[in-house]
Specification:
heterodimer, A: 159 residues, mainly alpha, 6 helices, flat, B: 499 residues, two-stranded antiparallel sheet, 22 helices, 2 strands, 1% strand, globular
């Protein structure tokens, strides 16, 4: 694992993880220090955050040490384009739900974008599959399980 | 004798037609989803948890159990035919199983896996039946300090002892514990780490974390490296059935695998990975045809697969009797109990014997159903493997968001799902285990509650943890388990030896 590490000092991912852990520890500490309610007996609600905080600091420091030694395992090169399509699909889905466009349209976007991210080049066909799948799930949930998934104008036609 | 009567009562519950139907649906869904590559039992249960949200508790718990066992069976099919183990516990199965499939002996490999799983599942469920009431007797005497110590043991073993890197395992665990702090503190009402976001007051849903880490994270990870050589399905040639010699070579590994799997699964030692590799290396040593190992030895499928399923039943022992989940799947099962306001533990045995024993009885039934369903339907499962990857993962993401929206239809929850997904992707990329995080999220608040209860009783004196023999012993064990990997790095050498 260490053979291909160039001798240029720190391993960046390990350094970043270490610093992030320290940052999270800082946030946990700050949040606990701002709490107002205390307990009369034993330990209050701040004890566990401080324990977590100490753990995170130790692990963060350990990562910093690791960064200057072996570093983290070297991952293979990632296909950024594929990731971007899927992330785009997920963002589209959240936007749809937040704006009230309903489950079916959200699913259509997510399905088409994910399939595209995995290398298919038939957005329209995949969109249609996503649409049917989304509507079917919505109806099964609404009618059989009496659970209402987020409904938009389209779903209201069926209710 | 009480146990037998209780179990018979359980069967009278589990054999009701509606319960049988739940069991069948669970087994079927579990196998189907478990067969899909990249999906292990943990994700299977997490994805299907919201579907059972509004059903009757006994029925849906029986369904979970079916999903759990079915997922284990389905996973072995993927491991053998696709060489793509959905979870670490079927890694050992894939080693020999995929070689057998390539050599045209896929049928016997699947058969020995299925029958071995049945034998192991049956023996281990009997073990569960008789161990559980005894453990409940013991657990009644447990004080909060003992529970706290048990949870510390689980923390350490799940994250530190058996992973490749204790540092990365513990990091995953502590992120989980930190996430567990989010929300309103149950004892005082203090809001913690909510940053004024009202959706966070109820804390972070276990299913959101699990589905994000497992489903979304896995999809992103697979997509990011899709240009690598695609995995090929090996078609099953020849007979499905095992020859006389196959039987002769399989029965002893089944039993030995069970003997490894059940006790290790039942100890709070975390999951099924260790017994499967122990079983694999044992069979390799005992086998009369050692030259076949690496080329498709049936013992190498029979043993680990039995160990895998026995451990799965073993994990239910601490889950049902102590409420202590020791694997990611068990953690999600616990979330399943909690969605009905049920808390597994000694009290549940006393308060809802019908439910607990019905569940245990249904495990026997699920096992029988699986062995009957699995082999004849193997053609159907193989077809599932042929679903094109883009549609498969697109479908998984749709199901993942469906589950999240069914539990809590808010953009914040979806945002969390997405964040956890990205985190899961990064963790996979840099080889951090994700299971400790799920266990940390669910066990963290429980450990905190027990510790605070213990300290309330002792009026704030922490020595109470060391003054009680059980908790002192457990904490010592946890400490040894934590320090041992750092002291002697050769502890996981049996894993390295397989590569």
């Amino acid at each position: 694992m260490t053979n291909d590490t160039p001798a240029r000092g720190a391993d960046r991912p390990a350094l970043v993880v270490g610093l992030l852990l320290l940052a999270v520890a800082g946030v946990v500490y700050y949040d606990a220090s701002q709490q107002t309610i205390t307990s009369n007996y034993g330990v209050g609600p701040t004890a566990m955050p401080y324990v977590a905080c100490v753990g995170l600091v130790i692990l963060g420091l350990a990562h910093l040490v690791v960064a200057f030694r072996d570093g983290l395992p070297k991952p293979e090169a990632a296909d950024g384009g594929a990731l971007l399509w899927i992330v785009g699909g997920l963002v589209g889905l959240i936007a749809c739900i937040a704006l009230g466009a309903g489950f079916t349209i959200a699913t259509t976007i997510l399905f088409a974008c994910t399939a595209r991210g995995f290398g298919r080049r038939a957005l329209a066909v995949d969109g249609a599959i996503g649409f049917v799948l989304g509507l079917a799930i919505f109806l099964v949930f609404a009618k059989l399980l009496t659970l209402l998934l987020p409904a938009g104008p389209l779903e209201r036609l069926f209710l | 004798m009480d146990t037998t009567i209780a179990l018979l009562n359980g069967f009278s519950v589990a054999l009701e037609p509606s319960k049988l139907l739940f069991c069948l649906v669970g087994v079927f869904l579990g196998t189907a989803v478990g067969v899909l590559p990249g999906i292990g039992p943990a994700l299977t249960v997490a994805l299907l948890l919201p579907v059972t949200f509004k059903l009757d508790p006994a029925g849906s718990l029986i369904m979970f159990a079916g999903i759990y066992y079915g997922g284990m069976y389905g996973g072995s099919t993927t491991a053998i035919l696709l060489n793509a183990p959905g979870e670490s516990a079927s890694m050992a199965t894939a080693l020999e199983g995929s070689k057998m499939a390539k050599a045209g002996r896929g049928g016997p490999a699947l058969a020995t896996a299925a029958i071995g799983s049945f034998v192991a599942g049956l023996i281990a469920t009997i073990g569960l039946t008789f161990l559980a009431p005894w453990l409940v007797e013991v657990a009644i005497k447990f004080g909060p300090w003992d529970y706290f110590a048990l949870m510390i043991v689980a923390f350490v073993t799940v994250s530190a002892t058996f992973g490749d890197s204790p540092l990365r395992g513990l990091t995953s665990l502590f992120i989980g514990i930190t996430l567990g702090l989010v929300g309103i503190d149950k004892l005082t009402g203090q809001a913690r780490l909510t940053f004024g976001v009202p959706e966070l007051l109820n804390g972070i849903e276990v299913t959101t974390l699990a589905v994000g880490l497992f489903a979304v994270g896995e999809a992103l990870f697979v997509a990011s490296k899709r240009f690598r050589d695609p995995e090929e399905i090996v078609p099953i040639k020849g007979s499905l059935w095992m020859s006389k010699q196959d039987w002769k070579r399989s029965w002893a590994p089944w039993l030995r695998g069970t003997a490894f799997g059940f006790p290790i699964g039942a100890l709070p030692a975390g999951g099924a990975e260790v017994p499967t590799f122990l079983s694999y290396s044992t069979e390799k040593k005992l086998c009369k045809y050692p030259e076949e190992f690496g080329k498709g030895a049936i013992e190498g499928v029979a043993g680990p697969e039995a160990a895998n399923n026995a451990a799965a039943a073993g994990v239910l022992v601490p889950l049902l009797t102590l409420g202590l989940p020791t694997s990611a799947t068990a953690a999600i099962m616990l979330a399943g109990f909690q969605q009905y306001g049920l808390n597994p533990g000694p009290l549940l045995f006393a308060e809802k014997p019908d439910l607990v024993w019905g569940l245990i009885a249904s495990l026997f039934i699920a096992n029988v159903m699986l062995v009957i369903l699995n082999l004849p339907l193997i053609g159907l499962w193989v077809k599932l493997l042929a679903v094109p990857q883009p549609w498969l993962y697109a479908g998984i993401l749709v199901f993942a968001t469906m589950g999240t929206l069914a539990v809590n239809p808010s953009p914040v929850e979806l945002g969390l799902l997405f964040l956890f997904g990205y985190l899961g992707y990064l963790m996979r990329r840099y080889d951090y285990p994700v299971a400790p995080m799920v266990v940390g999220l669910i066990l963290g608040p429980m450990a905190e509650a027990q510790l605070r209860r213990a300290l309330q009783i002792s009026l704030g004196d922490p020595m109470i943890l060391l003054e009680n023999p059980i908790s002192a012993t457990l904490l010592t064990l946890a400490f040894i388990a934590l320090v041992a990997p750092f002291v002697m790095k050769g502890l996981n050498r049996f894993k390295a030896a397989e590569d």
